[in-house]
Amino acid sequence: MKLLSDIIFLKRLVLLTIVSIPALASSGFSSTQQVVPQTDTTKRAGATGLKSNPTDTAKSSDKIEYSAKDSTKVDKKEGIVYLYGRARVVYQGLELDADYITYNSKTKQIFASGKHDAKGKYVGRPIFKMPGQGSSLADSLRYNTETAAGKIYGVFTEQEGGFFSGGLAKKQPDDEIHSKGQTYSTCNLPHPHFGIHITKGIVTQNQIITGPVYLKIEDIPLPIGLPFAFFPKPNKKSSGIILPSPGEDFTRGFFLRDGGYYIGLSDYWDAKILGTIFTGGSYDVNLTSTYTKRYKYNGNIMLRYANTITGSEGTRDFGKQKDFSINWNHSQNANANPGSNFSASVQIQTSGYNRNTAAGMTYDPQQLSTNILSSSISYSKLLFGDLFNLSLATRVNQNTSSKTVDLTLPDISLNMARSIFPFASPNRVGDQRWYEKISIGYSMKSSNSVTAGDSILFKKQILNKFRNGMQHNIPIQMNFNVLKYFNFGTSVNYTETWHFQTIRKTYLKATGNGADLSRIDTVPGFNRYGTYNVGGSVSTKIYSTAQFSKMGNLKAIRHVMTPSIGFSYAPDFSDPTKGNYRYAEYDGSRDANGNPIRVPNPSYNATTNNTVPQYLTYARQEGMLYGGPPMGRSASLSFGIQNTVEAKVLTPKDTTGKGEKKVPIINNLSITSAYNFLAPRNNLADFNITGSTPFTDKFQVNYNAVLNPYYVKDEYDPINNTAKTYTNTYTWQRGQLPRLTSFGLSFDYSLNPEALKRKNINEQDQREQNIQKGMTPEQAEAMALVSRDPNAFVDFKIPWNFAFRYSFNYSTDRLGLNSRINNSLTFNGDANITPKWKVTFDSGWNFETNNFSITRFGIYRDLHCWDMSFSWIPFGTQQMYSVDIKVKASVLQDLKLSKRKNYYTRY
């Protein structure tokens, strides 16, 4: 039986209060999960009634099953069974657990209650569960097994984020429920801090009729209520007004933020219409809709429109900007339709939206600094006995800085989910033969894409700018061991590329010293080419250990090296005689024999550069979707080595006195490079170095570097027009080390290890609690939000914390010119002033301006079932403050988590 009236009362009465309570839905007296309430011994509880389900067929037998841990007493004369200590009774689907239970076989009455312990605390309260419903908690109860009617005293039951407690209710033979003195609240204590008090009411299958209802805070009735109410029971979410939050923005003035209306469209779909107004004349409007179907799919849609006014009218700084944003996210449950999946992530907005609206009034620095917006809608399906995976997608990449859009419609891929072994025997006995290890795969991708300005994206002329093509890839591989210690692999890859357009390039000879001008014409028609490469690789592991007996707690150091070598070869596919490349020619120019005049290659030198073509060539597929075949032959040898160093030390704190632990010294320090035997010059590639060094269990430094092996001469290079010349001489031939062209370093640290530990284990612990408690979808989503963004919540169980992150990056070009240095420092912290008060801050240092970056302060007050927060940006162009008082989601109360506020400004 759904008690929707309680929710509707809550929403109606909230309109008269100074805080806004989210619209919720109720589904009846019995909860959908077992409730574990917080203990509050200073509060009292009332009574309510018990609902039965006589049509339940889960228990067809009329036999009453009972048990007790301490003792069982039977009074045969009166027909009463007494159960003491963890008593349990099961009857036709009713499950009842309590410290004390009696059953009277003559009157068919079951009575259950708790007991007072030595300290006077009431413990062992009855927990009951009706067929098809969840568990509820009570002080005591009576139930008639013959009439299926009963009463419950001091009931406490959860209803999708809300709680019913107190009062008296009685179930009538016609299934009507007469209720008196019941309280509904989002506070999860048996005696809540606040709630809607229903003096009396009648609940039927289709409607609810009540007498006076009023708001009650800390048992104090407020003069806010209704004399009576009549509500139908549509068994769906109710609607209500959401009151705005006040604050001040330094740029746009005072504001009332996110006021509007909540619409409970159904149990699977709801919507919010919210708006924000500023005293400076600006306003934002947004429509947010969330939909979900358990075990099927879920998603949300957000439409935003903003009218931003800056400056004062009549001044030079005055301006108006109109922006919009569209966001749609959809995900499908993996078990909803095995073998196929549909998902969407769409983000489209005007180029000035983030700048003018502070990223949708969230002031997220990452969004404000991002110029690329990516959207995709995709569908995938397994085919042919799960051997192939087909994916269809539409992708949009928007650059808000250059105001260009990359649109791909559609993007198709077909991949083999697993390779096949065509020569393997299905009835093989013993080891595989070498040819049985040969595997073959297949993949295909096809796209139709265009790049254009956002102003002409949906205009007719854009159709002629689409580029399309298809590419097939067939890898053939074989892996095996050599001499037990070497892993050897060989491969042959064939790639077939199809295009449906090619180009024709001609040049116009320049007069004087000017550069020649090129003209490109697109030629429709099918074009194909194939490329292939062959390769092999070998790797192994080398272990070395140094033992110590006189080095204190240090007992050993182990070094693990993983060297690897790979070779690949690809022929030259750029020979003009093969048809894919052509010589560049001057338009309309002919020599004495009537042949077209070719364009000379400015890099050609008959004396020193014989490997450079004398005339310019171009690929017919230049600028197409997959481009032309690679130029020149390639025979490349790649090589690298990976290192891991760790120590074994004694742990004196171990109870046996002989405990040992491994301490990492260097993690995955790798050095890689390659040598192209057929390159005309500069055959050796850069050396790439990456690694990390942990100093403690909580502190690790990550680093990377690029070393260039070639010497740079201080003389003018006429070809590249540079003051330095990049030579073909190695630096060590000149007695120098390779030149550093890139270096990066980063680390972060938390001074309170418990904060980091809590952050890491929070997700796993909550996942287990969700399973044990059987959380509703709303509660599970709230906990998922904590896991996704733990920094968006303050944790009162962590008394203090201070964390910081630093990163440094240096880069230059291969000549050692145009060097750039980027470094950043951010830090944040929080502290509990009292067990219920917490202050937070986050800031950083801007090394370019030598000043503090955006600095924010927050004050949070845990009011158990309420949140109070104050947010403040004291200086800078983003100055603002905001005060919020709101009901806390009940699922966060046991965790002592409070939602952090976002910060708002125009810049």
Q: Given the helix and strand composition, which structural class is it?
A: mainly beta
Task: Give me the Rg, rounded.
Answer: 37 Å
Task: Name the beta content range.
Answer: over 45%
Distance between the termini: 51 Å
Query: Could you tell me the number of beta strands?
Result: 59
Mean pLDDT comes to: 78
Helix content: under 10%
Q: Number of helix segments?
A: 5
**pLDDT under 50 segments (min length 5)?**
1-60, 760-779, 786-791, 891-896, 901-907
Shape annotation: extended
The largest sheet is: 26 strands, antiparallel, barrel
Provide an overview of this structure.
With 907 residues, the protein is mainly beta. 6% of the residues lie in helices and 53% in strands. The protein contains 5 helices and 59 strands. It has a 26-stranded antiparallel barrel. Strands 1, 2, 3, 4, 5, 6, 9, 10, 11 and 12 form a 10-stranded antiparallel sheet that branches. Strands 13, 14, 15, 16, 17, 18, 19, 20 and 21 form a 9-stranded antiparallel sheet that branches. Strand 41 (585-590) and strand 42 form a beta hairpin. The longest helix has 21 residues, at 753-773. The radius of gyration is 37 Å and the shape is extended. The model is unreliable at 1-60, 760-779, 786-791, 891-896 and 901-907 (pLDDT under 50).
